[in-house]
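The instructor's notes for this session suggest beginning with a concrete chain rather than abstract definitions. Hand out the sequence below and ask the class to guess, before any prediction is shown, which regions might be ordered.
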Amino acid sequence: MCTSSAKAAYPVETLTTKDGKTIKITLFKHASLAIDYDGLEFYIDPVTKVAGTEIDYTDMPKADYILVTHEHGDHLDPKAIEELTKPSTQIILNNTSREQLGKGTVISNGRSMTLADGVVLEAVPAYNTTPGREKFHPKGNGNGYVLNFDGTKIYIAGDTENIPEMASLKNIELAFLPVNQPYTMTIDQAEKAALSFKPKILIPYHFGDTPIEQLKERLDKDNAGIQTLIFPMQ
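After discussion, reveal the predicted structure:
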């Protein structure tokens, strides 16, 4: 089950697990998200400023977990992490981000860990494949994340192109895919990526000036059963 709300300061998506627990996803800007799972607070790539826009965390709860996909400044922001941290906050990130931030627990591609309330976190590959673009996000460095909440899986792709590993993703309820060429995916690549694992719901993010409505139009025509939701996440 998924419901939407755009009345708050930032858009919110709500999912309900098979056991009736609530997953509330707050969509900030660019690649910054918050997930509240039955009172457990996750932040993914929180930043205080991106593309000239400031993100206000004043009224947001402190984090139980902060996940960082990679070390670029629009994903790793020490100021935002400091604002959201409480004594028990756990920071989980890739190795290069750990080197820059100076703290946190490293998780590498292919690894997983069980967090509070039985939530399972898996780090999956995120990288560029187009010749000449590999330098933006080299293979083996950054992470995408799959969070499994009581059987409801949310995939946050991080900065990546359409990579073969996506086809191995199974039973994804909600996926976030980046669509800003040349750094991540073109619309063609995002369409192919979504069709390779067919999430029930797709939210494009990190899309800059990409005409993102074209992706929704294509996927609607594909009749793949993917519900594509567009929010002002550029």
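Then share the key points. The CA atoms of residues 65 and 206 lie 21 Å apart. The chain has four helices and 17 strands.
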